[in-house]
């Protein structure tokens, strides 16, 4: 999974959107595409805890930071090297820092 790191949601410029679309097309064309989406800011998050059987629902995120995950790609990559290569291309396309994490 490739997470896009930003300080706001929907911040991409027209040129960045075009580059992201081209990157998405290349993922599809090369069999690496699974899914992608943008995420709302933590101000729109709801934290839910029902571990005790009594649901606690409150606004906000567990993480308090100016930086947050504003989007993601779920990719199919055979190995860490390919995942890193695709993440480097993702970072260039969206003009943001990205973080990769493997599924367990």
Tell me the strand percentage band: 25-35%
Query: In sequence order, what are the helices and strands, one letter per element?
Result: EHEEEEHE
Using the 3D structure, state the CATH architecture: 2-Layer Sandwich
Assign the CATH class.
Alpha Beta
The name of the CATH topology is Alpha-Beta Plaits
Mass-distribution shape = globular
Question: What layout of secondary structure does this protein have?
Answer:
Elements: E1 2-6, H1 14-29, E2 33-38, E3 46-49, E4 56-59, E5 68-75, H2 80-94, E6 97-100
Antiparallel strand pairs: 1-5, 1-6, 2-5, 3-4
Helix pairs in contact: 1-2
Written account of the structure:
The protein is an alpha+beta fold. The chain has one domain: Dimeric alpha+beta barrel (Alpha-Beta Plaits, 2-Layer Sandwich). The chain is built from two helices and six strands, in the order βαββββαβ. The protein has helices spanning 14-29, 80-94; strands spanning 2-6, 33-38, 46-49, 56-59, 68-75, 97-100. The chain has a four-stranded antiparallel sheet, with helices on one face. The protein is globular and about 45 Å long. It starts with a strand and ends with a strand. The model has no long low-confidence stretch (mean pLDDT 96).
Summary?
The protein is of the alpha+beta class.
Tags for this model:
104 residues, globular, single chain, 6 strands, alpha+beta, four-stranded antiparallel beta sheet, two-stranded antiparallel sheet
